[in-house]
Amino acid sequence: xxxxxxxxxxxxxxxxxxxxxxxxxxxxxxxxxxxxxSWTSFRAEITWNGLENxxxxxxQDLLANAVTVTVVYAILCMAIQNTVSLSLALALQRxxxxxxxxxxxxxxxxxxxxxxxGYIWRGLLAPDGAVNSFxxxxxxxxxxxxxxLVVVAFIDAWKWSGLITLVYIAGLNSIPxxxxxxxxxxxxxxxxxxxxxxxxxxxxxLTFNVAVTLVGALSAxxxxxxxxxxxxxxxxxxxxxxxxxxxxxxxxGSASALGFTVTLLVIATAVPLVWWxxxxxxxx
Amino acid sequence: xxxxxxxxxxxxxxxxxxxVPIWLVVVNSFKPAGEAAELGLGLPRTWAIAENxxxxxxxxxxxxxxxxxxxxxxxxxxxxxxxxxxxxxxFGRSRSRWLQAAYFVMGLSILLPPSIIPTVxxxxxxxxxxxxxGYVLTMTGCRLGIVIFLAxxxxxxxxxxxxxxxxxxxxxxxxxxxxxxxxLLRPVLFVGGVILIINVWNDFFFALFLLQxxxxxxxxxxxxxxxxxxxxxxxxxxVFAHVLLTTLPLVAVYVVAQKRVLxxxxxxxxxx
Lengths: 284, 272
Description:
The structure holds two protein chains of two kinds. By secondary structure, chain A is mainly α. Chain A is built from 13 helices and two strands; from the N terminus they run H-E-E-H-H-H-H-H-H-H-H-H-H-H-H. Chain A has helices at 10-34, 52-59, 63-91, 97-111, 114-124, 130-135, 148-173, 177-185, 190-201, 203-218, 222-227, 239-248, 252-283, and strands at residues 37-38, 47-48. In chain A, strand 1 and strand 2 (47-48) form a beta hairpin. The longest helix of chain A is centred in the last third of the chain and has 32 residues, at 252-283. By secondary structure, chain B is mainly α. Chain B contains twelve helices and no strands. At the A-B interface, helix 1, helix 4, helix 5, helix 7 and helix 10 of A face helix 1, helix 4, helix 5, helix 6 and helix 7 of B. Chain B: This is Raffinose/stachyose/melibiose transport system permease protein.
């Protein structure tokens, strides 16, 4: 029968495969080459130069700082986002009219572009802005090394929290009610129920959210571009920010090396994380 | 009583989290420059709505940005959803090793970050750099993975009886795709489409590298150029007017479709 003919499936997948191969996989492979090549706007010829791009970036004190900033940013972002979203999801789990209104309101920041989110919070957190006048302070939240990175990560988390909340609500609603009821019958209080039943059962949603938020935040750029531009000093100069600067100055090889570093960080984060969370998911 | 405390707490949280940020944007976009520079939350002492929005529409490149954003978002979303659904059908039904290997690569493309600099190089080699077409193709290639992954799980969860029955009744494959498969995949394609629209409409990073000149600039790019033009001291009234106009189309769609969006995202995404 026609539907079981093997070869006949290829045309259906082919356009997608070609697009992913040409516009995702090919650049990915090229990047591995460019990261280890000399390529600048002054000398367009692309030649192999080993680890020179990396050593130049290290000599300029750019690489180590960018890696640290990026990793700290990603962890902060993941922690803030998942704490807020899980709390909101627990509060808004039941589908009722009032909960739908709140869900809808808390989803609004997700619609705002990260760039616009950056401008909005830059206004709110200005030394003479609304946050300071409420707190009675005159603190330059984005201008002081002590707070700049935390605040930038917070803005990114703010933008995405609405979507992550919905994923948690879906996860919470997939927990069988009978399981919670039998735990109650066995005398488990709310905290024990959360720790022993809800939290382990939430593992798929948790895996997904932690991985997505961490991996996403490693590619941070937009919020930083709208707020600090990498400052004060180099305190928020994440890998992609340095990459853009190198690119702008015509150092294409170094820029590729920085992009490649982001890829390595993503792999180093995602592989063990997915493996560890999946194992916990099974053993509960 | 407990519920009352809960909703009071949620409301208290929603004030700084949602209401104040939106209010700041709206009210300051109505003020003249000097007053907006104070970044206060009070009502304008002098109203400057027409001037501010006039400037953004005129000098801020808003209308061109709007057209450019629509010009890239619509093709990307249509291409990703349709090509993704077709590929998911093949990946979900075929047992060919080659296709399963390709499916694995699609999965990797979700996790790994796109390599933007070689993309610029590649588009230049293909003479597609700087314009909308190169941007559309790149975004489509980078976003197909997630839709394929979600939809393939869905296809696999469905028995193939319906498709077989339609084929026995004499329906051609494209007919089966349109009449059986697309309706079946509707919930997951809707969720994928919603996330995609938010993603593409708000994309700044790809646009910054791939779109050159104001003739191609999408809204986030035009917002950035506009705001950076007054870098030393942001003209907050104008920046906020631009932010509001940039976000408005998405909010308008959301207000109309919010019930389906919220229900789809909380119910449709994890099934299958």
